[in-house]
Amino acid sequence: MINQSILIPMAVKTLTRASDSASIPVIPGIIMSAQTQGTGTLLKVRNERGDITPVVVTEAVATVVNGTTLFLVTPSSGAKYIRAETVADFADARGGTLLQLLSDDNGQDHGASLLVTESVATIQARIDAAIIAGGGGGGGGGGGSFGSITATGATQGTAAAITTSVVRITG
Asked: In a 10 Å sphere around its CB, with 0-12 CB exposed, 13-18 middle and 19+ buried, how is residue 110 labelled?
């Protein structure tokens, strides 16, 4: 059902902690979720021990998620962004889509699920866009594109080049 890629944490973002205005380095790959809090953003990040730690930064959520694999979902607790690579599967559910997560922003690492109001098609489109924005394989460069591959040629010299940054293998 889900189209996944192997994703590597992107380059460090320097953000401003709201409590003391200190500049802090944050690797986007450790951000479990992000949501608007006042004029800034509440991040839930996985620390070096594997625990989830809340951090409030002064930057707007759009600035924080730009160039990452975070995508918008709307559970009953309010809109937030979660990491595309934490979604193991998703399916239609009453009132929206049920996401099965590899890990969530409460520190649960297996069997976590999240019911969101978005349709399956919307979730798939947002995951695709997040993977493209995050560079599909790290680097945070973004600007990638999805494409299809058709088998051509019989040797490396006669085969068609892959020109997209993200390749989706289905079926």
From this structure: exposed
- Among 7, 48, 51, smallest CA distance to 29 is for 7
Q: Please give the span between the terminal C-alpha atoms of the chain, in angstroms, as a whole number.
A: 9
Instruction: Report the candidate in 131, 41, 21, 132 with the shortest Cα–Cα distance to residue 87.
Output: 131
Counting every residue, how long is the chain?
A: 171
Q: How far apart are CA 84 and CA 79, in angstroms?
A: 15
pTM over 0.70: yes
Q: Can you tell me the distance from the alpha carbon of 46 to that of 118, in angstroms, rounded to the nearest whole number? A: 26
Name the token pair of 155.
């040797």
CA nearest to 28, candidates 48, 8, 42: 8
Please answer whether residues 8 and 29 qualify as being in contact, where contact means their C-beta atoms are separated by less than 8 angstroms.
yes
Q: Tell me how crowded residue 57 is: count the other CB atoms within 10 A of its CB.
A: 22
Question: pLDDT tens digit string along 136-169?
Answer: 444 444 444 555 566 677 787 787 776 665 555 5
Q: Pairing mode, if any, of strands 23-26 and 31-37?
A: unpaired
